[in-house]
Structure formats: C-alpha cells, structure tokens
Design brief:
Elements (H helix, E strand, L loop, with lengths): L12 H12 L9 H14 L5 E8 L5 E7 L7 H10 L5 E8 L2 E7 L11 E11 L5 E6 L2 E4 L2
Parallel strand pairs: 2-5
Antiparallel strand pairs: 1-2, 3-4, 4-5, 5-6, 6-7
C-alpha cells in the first residue's frame, strides 16, 4: 500500500495561518476592548431564531483572551463542533482559526492579516466555554468530559 502525503502549492493556506500566528505575538495585536467589538455580534448570533446558543457571561482573562460562556440547547449533539464553528464564524474577521481543545472549550483566533489592511492588523483571542445549568440555576463549566467545576 502506498502512503499519500498530499500536495501543496505556493499559495498554500499555511502561509496565512503562519502569518496569523505570528501576528498574535505582536505587542498591541489584540484589540483593546474585545467585548465592545465581539459582544454585540455574539448577542445577535445567539438570539437568531433556531440558534442552539444562549449567552451566559463573558470576561476578559489576564492574558487578553475573551472568555465567552455559552449554553448549548443540545450539548450531546453530534453537531456541537459545527454549531460552535458557525457561531464563531458569525463574529470572525477575515482570518479565522478554531481549535476544539476539550469537551467544553473552543479556542479561536480571529482578525485581519497585516497584508489585508493598510494598518498593522488587529484581532482577538476568544475562548468559547460550554456551560450547563447547575443547581439553583448557577452555571457550571464542564472543563473536562468527566468533571464539572464552577465558572468564575
């Protein structure tokens, strides 16, 4: 059996991905107030008819990551990843990367590449965290498939 290694051309998407990754380390790349830019669009996306998402809270973490707590109407759904990507795509800039880091977390980098704008390029680091209703209606973050820990 032959192994297939794939092919890549000069205009490979990896070039843009590398540029996005490099930009995230540049001082001042993350926009000053992610809530001002992203929260209104998140609210609209969650409130769309048929959306499985309910926005439960947000916070900016010390490292500049905009943490967004959301509840999914069908948390065991096989469409969870697709739904998360659809939600994030609705608020994303032209450059967009998502990683499903664990059962309840989706990390996202989104922004404008420097080559696509006359300015330096800006963006956001966003962490979508799935929450489920806890006792007394208090949300709990499902950090791992096997454990529940409180949202802070």
């Amino acid at each position: 059996m032959d192994d297939f290694f794939g092919v890549s051309g000069e205009e490979a998407p990896g070039d843009a991905l590398r540029e996005l990754a490099e930009q995230t380390t540049r001082q001042g790349w993350v926009a000053a107030d992610p809530a001002a830019d992203l929260l209104p669009r998140l609210r609209v996306a969650c409130d769309l008819p048929g959306s499985p998402w309910s926005l439960r809270g947000t916070t900016v973490l010390p490292d500049g990551v905009f943490a967004v707590d959301v509840e999914h109407a069908r948390p065991g759904s096989p469409r969870l990843l697709a739904d998360a990507i659809e939600l994030l795509a609705g608020i994303a800039g032209p450059a967009f990367f998502v990683r499903h880091t664990d059962a309840a977390t989706f990390d996202c980098v989104t922004g404008t590449l420097q080559r696509d704008t006359p300015g330096p390029g800006r963006g956001h680091l966003l962490r979508l965290r799935l929450v489920s209703p806890g006792r007394g209606g208090a949300p709990t973050l499902r950090a791992r498939a096997e454990a529940l820990v409180p949202v802070r």
